[in-house]
Amino acid sequence: SLGRQEPQKGQIDLLRAMPTILEQRPDCRLWLVGREGASTPELRSEVRRLELCDSVEFLGVRDDVGDLLAAADVFVFPSHWEGLGGAVIEALAMKLPIVASDLPAIREVVSDHALLVDVGDFHALAAAVVEVLAQPFAAAQRCEAGYERFLEQFGKRAMLDGMLNFYRSAAGITDAH
Questions:
Q1: Between the CA of residue 147 and those of 42, 87, 89, 152, 155, what are the distances in Å?
Q2: Could you tell me which of 65, 66, 46, 64 has the C-alpha nearest to residue 56?
Q3: Which terminus of the chain is less hemmed in, N or C, by CB atoms within 10 Å?
Q4: Residue 31 in 3-state DSSP?
């Protein structure tokens, strides 16, 4: 999971999902990547309370996020609210299976190419992670379709076309005055 350790990022829900995930997949490991924040003490306390010290690692700020995503089996984004979800876009670009909160901003990015769960529902979060790991073929199909969506919406060509349209629009407004 990528994101600063703040309440709105929902990492506490992911920690609470881990015991259920580990029941099904005892070899599972969770990497929390991102800077410390207001939630860090609660997150560390929850890891101890749930006895997850051998399964959860706080990796902090990293400059090798692409490598970490490439090494991951699933990207989990349990955010409680988002403006866009840049980390989800990165996961799409890496063809990584995604489990995320069902938020309008996330749905706009992933369409139906991820497993989305209700915000704060750590039971559903656990079930979705286990499903991705248990059904790699279905996950791979979502990844391929998600990558195509990434290229269409966020790839270099889409970004250049968007900027060109923006400048044309701005030039048209300026010319009208």
A1: 35, 14, 9, 9, 10
A2: 46
A3: C
A4: strand
Tokens of 103: 């938020």
Cα separation, 18 vs 49, whole angstroms: 12
Q: CB within 8 A of 146, min separation 6: which ones?
A: 92, 95, 98, 110, 111, 113, 114
Using alpha carbons, select from 109, 123, 114 the residue that is nearest to residue 76. 114
Supply the pTM of this predicted model: 0.87
Transcribe 104-155 into DSSP letters: HHHHHHHTTSSEEE-TT-HHHHHHHHHHHHH-HHHHHHHHHHHHHHHHHHHS
